[in-house]
């Protein structure tokens, strides 16, 4: 796994590995649609009944996966979840006790802030659960419970396959909790997993459009600033897209919740400012469309990421990136793929060190 296997960079190799890796991780986490989280990574009904508060904490891309996990736990298990950046969480008054569950998401399992937050939460008495990719890592050893992501080694500093496998792992955790608390049925679990099983081949479909993403990367690579917008789960995907692009292209990017645009950020829009609008959540699509129209009216170039079934979004976009249809919960796994490829091609076209961007490290083990 530590060779580029004919690809120009580890990043593009790892983007292309996602269909295979996701197929594997999905198949490991269920047996004939019965969730298969090993004892070390699941909470018993008794443990769950004792929990009245859930926190999720992480850094960087892992934090965005954590936020998708928060959405899944809140929507499936109906438990409120607080998500906090680890470098903030570790210095806060942690209102946790033996009735709290704190989930730590970390590809490497070694990130200093995440590890420090784990040690502090554990010392106060919280139950701790790690979502990590590295077996035997500090976080995997020190947390009470551990769920592995099975992404295989990720070499490129910018995280891609670790992110999508973290989201899958968190979704299985959310389904497991929801099912045990009888908030969802085994029938609903089967339906979600069946939709999940289509994701790897749907990613393969998206990957076939690489030339389209290269063209978009070329059209935005000289922009002063690029904005990402979205609501709800789409806002999380927007944040991950903005991070991916800024870390390897060095272009200033920012993600805004669509509804907040008019409270300040829309002042930044000039003629031709590129805005990537993540527009997948069906219950709020109308709102997204009206936000796109506001952006277009101020001269933005709106590039929408939308499901094939929602072709009408074309009317409120300059460019539309179509992703295959899925259920709302799973769109982050598809919408992130064009974002990863646009970031990759922008970085290549700008002549940057794609796998080792300036000033960044794969694993930040110092504060
Ligand atoms: C670094 C990496 C990011 C990663 C973050 C958290 O900043 O460059 O890609 O998301 O650390 O790393 P972890 O190993 O804890 O997921």
From TrEMBL:
A molecular function annotated in GO for this UniProt entry is: glutamine-fructose-6-phosphate transaminase (isomerizing) activity
Question: Would the keyword Iron turn up in this protein's UniProt record?
Answer: no
**Where is this chain's protein located in or outside the cell?**
Cytoplasm
Cited function: Catalyzes the first step in hexosamine metabolism, converting fructose-6P into glucosamine-6P using glutamine as a nitrogen source.
In the UniProt entry, which residues are flagged as the active site? Answer: 362 (for fru-6p isomerization activity)
Protein keywords = Aminotransferase, Cytoplasm, Glutamine amidotransferase, Repeat, Transferase
Domain of life of the native organism = Bacteria
The record lists the catalysed reaction(s) as:
D-fructose 6-phosphate + L-glutamine = D-glucosamine 6-phosphate + L-glutamate
Q: Name one GO cellular component term.
A: cytosol
Task: Please give the name of this protein.
Answer: Glutamine--fructose-6-phosphate aminotransferase [isomerizing]
Question: What binding partners and quaternary form does the record give?
Answer: Homodimer.
GO BP annotations listed: carbohydrate metabolic process; fructose 6-phosphate metabolic process; protein N-linked glycosylation; UDP-N-acetylglucosamine metabolic process
Q: What is its EC number?
A: 2.6.1.16
Q: What is its main location?
A: cytoplasm
Which species is the source of this protein?
Peptoniphilus porci
Top-level EC class, please?
transferase
Q: Which residues form the SIS domain?
A: 44-183, 216-357
